[in-house]
């Protein structure tokens, strides 16, 4: 099983409420909304700029391990 990584994100209250509103209206949790948005951004990047092939050397120290 692949290990998951987590990152803590801080939003101002207005943005947090708006994200919660969007998530609720899309029938998902805020966490799932954030994962969805991250996947969309990665997909857009790969279409617009370049396919991401080797990420083994990328520093992910901002992330925490999740088992």
Question: What are its keywords?
Answer:
two-stranded antiparallel sheet; 2 strands; 67 residues; globular; mainly alpha
Describe this structure in words.
With 67 residues, the chain is mainly alpha-helical. It has a domain at 14-50. 48% of the residues lie in helices and 9% in strands. The chain has 2 helices and 2 strands. It has helices at residues 13-25, 30-48; strands spanning 4-6, 64-66. A two-stranded antiparallel ribbon has the order 1-2. The longest helix is centred in the middle third of the chain and has 19 residues, at 30-48.
Shape: globular
Q: What is the alpha-carbon Rg in Å?
A: 14 Å
Tally the helices: 2
Query: How much strand content do the residues show?
Result: 5-15%
* Percent helix: 40-55%
Element order: H for helix, E for strand:
EHHE
Unreliable stretches: none
Question: Gist?
Answer:
Helices cover 48% and strands 9% of the residues. By secondary structure, the protein is mainly alpha-helical.
SSE layout and pairing:
Blueprint: E1 4-6, H1 13-25, H2 30-48, E2 64-66
Antiparallel strand pairs: 1-2
